[in-house]
Each structure stands twice: as structure tokens, then as C-alpha cells.
Design a protein that fits this description.
This protein is α+β, with helices and mostly antiparallel strands. Helix content is 24%, strand content 36%. The chain has three domains: 268 residues, Spore Coat Polysaccharide Biosynthesis Protein SpsA, Chain A (Alpha-Beta Complex); 61 residues; 104 residues, Sandwich (Jelly Rolls), CATH 2.60.120.
Length: 475
């Protein structure tokens, strides 16, 4: 029997509450937070049984295409489809685009909408709840999975369970988003409330009809974007202008809090949204003093804390209930569970010109990766690695010149009207405004140091003439 549940994994978020590890170029779904696999990989492996689930669709930001492909390749998920969003328009539009695409291909398959960055400790309970939610969806409902709460948590959304609908599903009586601590405590004690896990089961036609009723602008934009999408292998690009015209709203606000077709299925599945350092601390094994120590971190007279070091050594002494996270270019020190002001702190760092400069970590691209080594007024130094047989786009820059020094492998360089080779120790100068391309014709990685000089060094200073990866955004 062919499975009729189609996972739709939403991977467009930035995960800023896990700053400084999670950044726009490397959001939390691509981090190895709980195991040797990334959170995205854990999510995909959870629905990898093809007796239960169809091959997944991953809805991701255009700039994360290479990251998604790399993470799929590492776990052998070769049958997944990647739908690229040209702009961030929140979850209602992302789900609508996936529904519009699925409506043409397999309209009777139930879409199982999954965030890419959550943890589930009890997969058996998850699969049982999914089967019940899918049955409710086939009966015409928009079904949400409600995680059984094990504590009052003001940072989560809540769903109040209503009358029984049969087969383990209940009508939704009420939504409450991030209640005050005393209200969360009373709600959990009452026993009638569940955490909103952000996991949904729905038929494409049901969702699009309800979205058209309650948020018609989102539904119309998603249908146009899907109808004019282009496909290249397993990559689907939504039409940029059509999708970008959609209002940006969550699926909860756009549909679930308004529809009369809502249902909730309780699930004691050990769910966590991994949305803060406190949540990550709760999800990981702790030592006898209640600490989680990662990387090169050391702690003396410390209790109930999360301490992580990537880069410079981190020592914490005489503290309790803290989150201390150090990366190569930033350090966070916060009371554990008090990360609510983190977004404001990061915004202030941006305003001061700090906390936004890329740290020394690779940024994936379809052709390989780059890493910022140093930067200052009017210059930037990068380490660039190009995969065997890969090539950057044929491009030019309006506001910067570049100097390339090959340190490993061989390069084929196009600059102006010339095409020439470089080997280790040789260099090339790319003048401002020159049409150029970098290729790796060899069988091993090409590594070079790039020095950029100019009055603007942003990644969007690219005029692209040819690109084998079909990109319209940043290189």
C-alpha cells in the first residue's frame, strides 16, 4: 500500500534566539545541537520510513540551498524535493506554496507540516499522533499536534482542547500565545491545555480553501508563485515576484486561530522547539551538577548551566542558572531562561557594527564554500574553496576589486577576454568592473585566498551573467 502522508519540512527560519551560534547564514536547523547530525537531518530521518511517508518536500530560503543539499547528501536523502523561497514570508505562505504544488501532483496525500528545528524524544508517540492527525485531515479537518506539557512554559503557545471528534482528535477551543508565567502555571494544572508544537496535518485543498477564506492575499500569491514555478531536477523555484507579493503571517494567525475546521491531537512525544539556550539545556544530558559543557568549556563551582566554547577557551566560575556561549567572534552571557531580550541585544550589536561580521566559519554555496578571515575599512580577506568540477558564476562587481592567490589545487580563471590557469603559489588580479569567473577543473578541492578592496564589500555587489545553478540572488 502506497503511503499517503507527504512531509513538508519548513526550513526558512533564522533561529536568532540561539545567537551567537545560529546566524542568518547558518540557522539552528543546520547545527549539530543534540547529536552528530544536524537538527534538520534528525527531522528528515524521523520521517524516512517510506512505508509510512512519501519523500519529503523541504521549503527553504534561496540562500540556504547549498546547505540543504549538503545535509541531504550526508544522510542519503536523495529523493527529497527542495522548494526555494525567493523571500521570507512566514509559515502561512510557505505551507500554501507547498500545498499548491502538491495539489497538482498528489491532491489526496495528507501534508504533514514539520518545523525543521524541533526535537522529539519519543518517535513512537509522534508516529501514532501523526496517524490520528492524518485521519482527521482526511475527514476535512486542519489538525495540529498538541504536545503534552511537562511544566509551565511562558515562551510557548498553547491550545485548549475542546469536544472529542473521535479517533483521538479534539476540536480546538482556544489558542493562547505566550501567556504570563502565572497563567501558564494555571493552564498546565488544569489539564485541558497542550503546547502548540507547530506540526500540522492537512489536505492541500482544505488548507488552501480556508486560507482563501481568511487570508486571500496569501492564498492567491502562493497559487501564482507555484503555478509559475520552475523546476531543475529536485529543485523548485517559486516565482519571485508572485511569492514576494504575499503578506507575511504565521499559519496560526492566518488560518488556525480563525478556522472552524481546526482539530488538535494530543501527543506525549517529548517535544521541544529548541528555541532558546534554556530549551537546549533541558533537551541534553546533564552532569551531576546539572551542567551541560560543550567544546573547550570548563566550569568551577557552577550549577544548572549551559556552557559552550567554539574558539577561545571559556571558563565559568561561581555561577548558577546561566547560559555562556562562545564562538570565534562573539560571546553570550545570559541568565538561563531569560533569553527574551536576546533579539534586542543582537539588534544593538548590529547598530554598533558588531555581531554581524561573519566569523571564521564556512558559508556554503552550490560551488563550495567561503570563510571570512579578516576585514576592516575598505578591505576583506576570504578563504575560498571550490569543489572539483564546480564554478562560480560569470560575474562582475561595481564597487570592489579582487586579488586571488591559489594555495591548493588548480584554477581556471576568466577575466575580461582572457582565460588562463593558476596553480599553487600563483595569483591573479580582478579589476573593478571586470567580467570574471573562477572554476576548478581539477579532481581535488581548489583553495585560494581572496583579498577584496573597495568602498563596499557586501555579498549583493554582484552582476551575474551566467550561472549553472540558476541563482538570482547572492553568490
Amino acid at each position: 500500500m502506497t503511503p499517503a502522508i507527504q512531509p513538508v519540512v519548513l526550513s526558512g527560519g533564522a533561529g536568532t534566539r540561539l545567537w551567537p551560534k545560529s546566524r542568518g547564514s547558518l540557522p539552528k536547523q543546520f547545527l549539530k545541537l543534540l547529536s552528530k547530525r544536524s537538527v534538520l537531518q534528525d527531522t528528515l530521518l524521523r520521517v524516512a520510513d517510506r512505508r509510512r511517508y512519501l519523500p519529503p518536500t523541504i521549503v527553504a530560503a534561496e540562500e540556504h540551498r547549498a546547505l540543504v543539499e549538503e545535509h541531504l547528501r550526508e544522510i542519503g536523502a536523495t529523493d527529497a524535493e527542495i522548494v526555494l523561497e525567493p523571500a521570507a514570508r512566514n509559515t502561512a505562505a510557505a505551507v500554501a506554496a507547498a500545498a499548491a504544488l502538491a495539489e497538482r501532483r498528489n491532491p489526496e496525500a495528507v501534508l504533514l507540516v514539520l518545523p525543521s528545528d524541533h526535537a522529539i524524544r519519543n518517535p513512537r508517540a509522534f508516529h501514532r499522533a501523526v496517524a490520528r492527525a492524518a485521519a482527521a485531515a482526511r475527514a476535512g479537518r486542519l489538525a495540529a499536534l498538541g504536545a503534552a506539557p511537562d511544566r509551565p512554559e511562558p515562551a510557548f503557545g498553547y491550545i485548549r482542547r475542546g469536544r472529542a471528534l473521535g479517533s483521538g482528535a479534539f476540536a480546538i477551543a482556544r489558542f493562547v500565545e505566550k501567556p504570563q508565567a502565572k497563567h501558564a502555571s494555571a493552564m498546565v494544572k488544569s489539564g485541558g491545555w497542550l503546547w502548540n508544537a507547530g506540526i500540522f496535518a492537512l489536505l492541500p485543498r482544505t488548507y488552501l480553501a480556508e486560507l482563501g477564506r481568511h487570508a486571500p492575499g496569501i492564498a492567491a500569491a502562493a497559487r501564482r508563485a507555484a503555478g509559475r514555478a520552475t523546476r531543475e531536477g529536485n529543485i523548485v523555484r517559486l516565482h519571485a515576484a508572485a511569492f514576494s507579493g504575499s503578506p507575511a503571517r504565521s499559519i496560526d494567525k492566518a488560518v488556525m486561530e480563525k478556522t472552524r475546521l481546526g482539530a488538535v491531537v494530543p501527543a506525549a512525544m517529548g517535544w521541544s522547539d529548541l528555541g532558546s539556550w534554556d530549551a537546549l539545556w533541558r533537551a541534553l544530558p546533564r552532569d551531576r551538577r546539572g551542567n551541560v559543557l560543550r567544546g573547550g568549556a570548563v566550569a568551577f563551582d557552577v550549577a544548572d548551566s549551559y556552557v559552550s566554547a567554539e574558539g577561545p577557551a571559556v571558563a565559568v566560575v561561581g555561577l548558577k542558572d546561566v547560559a555562556v556561549v562562545g564562538t570565534a567572534d562573539a560571546v553570550l552571557v545570559a541568565a538561563r531562561g531569560r533569553e527574551v531580550g536576546l533579539g534586542d541585544a543582537v539588534a544593538r550589536l548590529r547598530a554598533l557594527g558588531s555581531g554581524q561580521r561573519p566569523g571564521p566559519r564556512p558559508v556554503r554555496r552550490p560551488w563550495g564554500s567561503f570563510m571570512s578571515i579578516d576585514s576592516g575599512r575598505g578591505f576583506q580577506v576570504k578563504r575560498i574553496a571550490v569543489d572539483p568540477g564546480a564554478a562560480l558564476s560569470l560575474q562582475m562587481h561595481r564597487r570592489r576589486a579582487e586579488h586571488w592567490v591559489v594555495v591548493q589545487g588548480v584554477a581556471r580563471v576568466t577575466c575580461g577576454g582572457r582565460v588562463f590557469g593558476l596553480k599553487a603559489g600563483e595569483s591573479a588580479y580582478i579589476p573593478l568592473g571586470a567580467k570574471h569567473r573562477l572554476e576548478n577543473p581539477g579532481a581535488r578541492p581548489l583553495v585560494l585566498i581572496e583579498v577584496q578592496v573597495g568602498d563596499y564589500l557586501g555579498e549583493d555587489d554582484i552582476v551575474r551573467f551566467e550561472d549553472r545553478y540558476g541563482r538570482a540572488g547572492k553568490d
